[in-house]
């Protein structure tokens, strides 16, 4: 035990700056929601299927058998792994006991697009392999898709470290955060009697359920057993106390935070669905380039608080202000830092490695240009959300949208951005270009494939397995004009299946693109996060202290380890997550 305490002190005293000057090198990560499809092929269809909660727990149990892990600090269902990744249960409390649900996997924080691609493929393999091994008495499949057959849209979110503001705007931002923090404290005080009432009612319901024969009722079961006449008004009033925070945060997100980045990233993100979209067939048989694009209705917002689906998401700030400012002053104080996490919600989950690589690589390089003020030649959309609707429906790639340079097609806008990035890279010293040349070359490959298809609608060859929506459309068109909607929808869904029966995996025969992230890098990311990131400390902590007598809980920015009767804290360095 003394040895563990010594290691703990050494690790907690270590400090790193985690700085890097290479192009396309900043802290970045990705969160992906996977759909679990449960269908027992060997029994009657009327048989009761396992619940979303039981499926999730079976998958996590299988994952934990193959690598060191630790339970999350703030969520008992969240688990962190020694390779820096994490898994979380995504389901509404009222739907946890029915089939379905989403498994959210997050990559570790990395510093290059190739590391992010390798890490993303590692978490794909983790959830796929766990599904094949987990103890579920049904045929369980995992889909890395973006919309289900009922029209629910999910997918992935990208995260990038960036300067939230500069100069006067940085002070405006900090003043706004201070005001929000004080508002949150007032909201917490106002809501505390209601929370206390609900906690008391939950305890009473646990006692009642035990008296009725339920020996181990869950907190969720007890909460849902509270009479609706008590539960609903209390929840409504608690939510009402947080409205001032939501309104204030919306102002910050729309008018103060990441102003420079959003000016140009918006146009890139909206037009990149031409190569980054995964395609979707809706209930009316209409084909979209991107499932996420069909539901986006804001440029910048909290995300999900009142039905909004924004391009730039600030939900993580809302959770931090509302959930952790009372019990962790240090964590909330991080909101005052200049470097913050920029979260992008307009992002489809990709099966194509090249599309996924270019998707994050292009954003990284454009952010480098923005940081250096090299954006004069870039066009900007005049009506971004309206343009997104037009482009998403335009699988012929002919629509033109309004920009500050006149009307342009999505391909013309993308080519303008690529040309500007290429010029920027060429003017950068070769020894600090990093992966920039590989990113621009792959970007050009995807645009060339789109141009070929634009000129000849039967020319899918260059896009197969490189651009998801075009590959999917090619598979659908092979069914012929008489194919039913259900036949087409089957392709739409099974294209994303991660098992060997998945249509994309059948097309690629499980091959990987060594030019983007080689096999050695993938094996490294399966074992541990990159050494120059906060995730490396998290992975070390989990490997060192899991599985023994030491009790440990882990979060993104720190761990709490109980050595004997003492609980020690291990910080993972400067962290924007």
At a glance:
With 577 residues, the chain is of the alpha+beta class. It has helices at residues 2-13, 52-66, 113-133, 167-211, 219-224, 228-241, 243-255, 259-271, 273-276, 315-323, 329-333, 353-371, 384-393, 410-426, 436-455, 468-477, 485-494, 503-508, 519-527, 534-545, and strands at 28-38, 69-72, 79-81, 86-90, 102-106, 140-143, 156-163, 280-281, 287-288, 298-301, 310-313, 339-344, 400-403, 406-409, 551-554, 558-563, 566-571.
Describe the protein.
The protein has 577 residues and is of the alpha+beta class. The protein is built from 20 helices and 17 strands. The chain has helices at 2-13, 52-66, 113-133, 167-211, 219-224, 228-241, 243-255, 259-271, 273-276, 315-323, 329-333, 353-371, 384-393, 410-426, 436-455, 468-477, 485-494, 503-508, 519-527, 534-545; strands at 28-38, 69-72, 79-81, 86-90, 102-106, 140-143, 156-163, 280-281, 287-288, 298-301, 310-313, 339-344, 400-403, 406-409, 551-554, 558-563, 566-571. Strands 1, 2, 3, 4, 5, 6, 7, 10, 11, 12, 15, 16 and 17 form a 13-stranded mixed beta sheet that branches. Helix 3 (113-133) packs antiparallel against helix 12 and helix 8 (259-271) packs parallel to helix 13. The longest helix has 45 residues, at 167-211. The chain is globular.
